[in-house]
Specification:
The structure holds 3 protein chains of 3 kinds.
Chain A: H1 7-13, H2 17-21, H3 37-60, H4 66-72, H5 77-110, H6 116-124, H7 131-142, H8 147-156, H9 168-192, H10 196-204, H11 209-238, H12 241-246, H13 253-262, H14 267-294
Helix pairs in contact in A: 3-4, 3-14, 4-14, 5-9, 5-11, 5-13, 7-9, 9-11, 10-11, 11-14, 13-14
Chain B: H1 2-33, H2 44-47, H3 55-94, H4 97-108, H5 115-125, H6 129-132, H7 134-159, H8 161-170, H9 175-204, H10 209-212, H11 220-230, H12 233-266
Helix pairs in contact in B: 1-12, 3-7, 3-9, 3-11, 3-12, 5-7, 7-9, 8-9, 9-12, 11-12
Chain C: E1 5-14, E2 17-27, E3 32-36, H1 43-51, E4 58-63, E5 66-67, E6 78-81, H2 93-97, H3 99-102, H4 108-122, H5 137-149, E7 155-159, H6 167-184, E8 187-192, H7 195-201, E9 204-209, E10 212-217, H8 219-224, H9 229-235, E11 239-248, E12 251-256, E13 259-263, E14 269-275, E15 280-282, E16 288-297, E17 302-308, E18 311-317, E19 328-333, E20 339-341
Parallel strand pairs in C: 3-8, 3-9, 6-7, 7-8
Antiparallel strand pairs in C: 1-2, 1-4, 4-5, 9-10, 11-12, 11-14, 12-13, 14-20, 15-19, 16-17, 16-19, 17-18
Classes of the chains: A mainly alpha, B mainly alpha, C alpha+beta.
Chain lengths: ~300, ~270, ~350
Amino acid sequence: MRRPVAPTVRRLIGSSARRLIGPSASRPVGGSAAWTAPAALFLFAAFVVPGAALLRAASRGSARGLLAELVLVWTRPHTLRAFANGVGLSAAVSVAAMILCLAPARLLAARRFRGRGTARLLLSLPLAFSGVIVGFLAIVMLGRVGFVPAVSRALFGRAFGAGLAYALPGLFLAYLFFEIPRAVLALEAAFAGMDPELDAAARSLGARRFERFRRITLPELRPALAGTFATTFAVSLGSYGAALILSRRFSVLPVEIYQEFTAFGNDAGACAMAIWLAGVSALVSGLAAREAARA
Amino acid sequence: MPERRSDLAAAALLALLLAVVVSPLAVVVAGAVVDPALLGLVSESWTAGPRPNSWFSYVLSLYGRQLGRSALLASVVVGLSVVIGFPAAYGLAGLRGRLATSLRIALDAPLAIPGLAVAIGLLLAYPGGRASGATLAAGHLLYALPFVVRAVGNALSRGGLLELEEAAAAAGADRWQRLRRIVFPLARPGVVAGALMAFTISWGEFNVSFLLATPTTQTFPSALYLTYTTNSFPVAAAATTLFLAAVVPALWLLQRVAAGEAARFGEAA
Amino acid sequence: MSARVEIRRLSKSFGGRPAIRDVTLSLEPGSTTTLVGSSGSGKTTLLRCLAGLLAPDSGEILFDGLDVIGVPAERRGVGLVFQSYALFPHLTVEQNLSFGLDVRSTSPPERRRRVEELAGELGLTFLLARRPSEISGGERQRVALGRALAYRPVLLLLDEPLAALDPNLAESVRDALSRAIALERTTVLFVTHDRSDALRLGDRVALLKEGRLEQAGSPRELYRQPRTEYAANFFGAGLVCGAVAVREGSRAWADTALGRIELPDGWSGPVRLVIRPEALALDDDAGSPVVVRRVSYEGDRSRLFFETPSGEAAVDCPPGRDVPRGARVRVGVDPSLVIVLPPE
């Protein structure tokens, strides 16, 4: 039994609306999955397909197949060394960057002071730098005729740091240079997202400063620390510009891959190494993401 | 009182980090303008070569083409990353559950994969894409897209997209009117921030480009590698300064956008 | 412009958990119905189904007899005020108010006239150029109301519009709200968890419990003649005690811990009685003796709590009289204010 339809409502709704729209539309707002289709298609074409090509190329190189090729790359000592160098350097740089940036990040997040914006801007500059620029900057500062030795010779009569850029400490500093903005910005965001009342509550409960840091701040920061480590580690591991510019003796895996691929034409070997590089980087990122999600 | 002391220590550390970041840049920029010898940088190899009036015009004559190509590539990457990234962020804002989570992970996945591996994969999968620069753009886009999606997504969720869109729907706005009047304005600061990030990433990208670029598609960061290994110090310094000249304004704008957005939504419930 | 809204056997569940079950309710044109219930009772789900923001699993929603299920929110002509207001942050107060007119392509003079009229009604005239972030909570609330009223909705839905305001502010906004609603004469569904708002603001009150309609009726009906113990306790908690009604001729009574209580005609056998504080009074002559366990001083009165064999009960003590804890007092019952329910 339907009542006669009031004209106002009829005009607002339209009598055929139900037939046209159907009763489905359960979520009337926000984009639907279809909106993500362009991104999904792009990822498939530019990420999944190349990944498959990488696997195929690695397996095609020898009659032994993919797994054998993946194992075989480790029989070359210089590959092993380059891999260990990269992983060790990246891990050390990531940890150092986090430790160095913790207090400044808290300062940027918690305090309002003049020049805060400028400080943040300047610290974020290396975000845009590729490894080669950082390598060049290292040479300018710590090369054989670098700025630091020149100044120290003028001031103290001795050239400190000359040629340091070409040795391991120089490489370490160069990598640290472009991890600083990533660590600072990520940790600043984490500090900014922390509830200041937590610290106040801990204080009212009688916790001393170190105890508050250990029991409140650190656990709160854990996901951010994991995320920061993953980012800086992946960036360091994949970067090779600085090593390309700075070091002949201290090689990292991407440099080996590049040479294997371009100079020696060993596609299968280069691909196998690239798979390892990507695998380790993805593994560390995945573990960190899980750690971050757990909190 | 102890707070003050720990703040001072943090400020000192901050100053140290700033010095580490800024001093090499200052030396390089100065080296492009004044005689390197004034900076104490005296070396046979660094002062050899031609001595033009301005190192900048000399760099432009050497690497102007790469500079232009990098600018073009960055614009293409910015455009594509917004065109693909905005809908993705809007779509993700309306999705819940497992599908949304896997999409998010997939979008972020390239960030965990070294650029060289991506470059080799792209080269093998699309050997023809190298000459046109298509694979180069795709490689840059892979690393720019996550930042655009994140920036737009943050802007949308920060503004309370779903509820505002519901309010607009209840007030009689259809999907297109909601997009135009609510979603676009809400997303705009995020789009601007994401576009600036995409520009910065593409402008400085080396890991993918070094392998994928041919001599005719070579970008400015690869040219920088060339200048560092072959040219004298003032040329290298001038080239680096030109590189910085684009990065600094972009990052400055990025910060302004972030501050503006914070001010806009700071007080609103 | 106001519609008769009929909700018929409406059900909606989320992932197998029912939010509303088989709700049937009608809203008379131009009347205000308050929808009340504790949190999680399905109030907001029902409201969102009416707004078109949720599709129910089954049932019908009729606006003036026309089924609107499947009609998208933007074509229902409904006004919706969110608990968080959901004002558009990038638009001024004026633009927020005229949003619904803009998307309907109303003519500019008509639009201006309506916005001015609403701004006057709601006291927003001097705030039109501001943005939502630049006005106070109460002002935002009024903008949200004005935005929903601007296009003369056939049905106005209010989702806990006072919940986010502090009590003093809520009082003044409540007045502005009821004035504006009276002026606009539209059908209103007002969702609230506040029982006194429900009674004060509604022509009719609908009580939801766990997704089902517990009872609907006039405020007086729900307060004085609740049909269930839940409804009785929701609007005014009291002592619930079991008793046996004895009938003798045209009289009926029951014996309780507080003495013999006269019952309305028609009751016999086991019953439940709900005795609210207002049904009790200190009666030094004829009341039943009790011992005061707890005193809650509330300014205009103090409430005295005492134990009975059926549980704790309370009686109000006039402000002039000071009864300390532990005192012995006598309590009398006004039988006309006792609620009688059938046994469980």
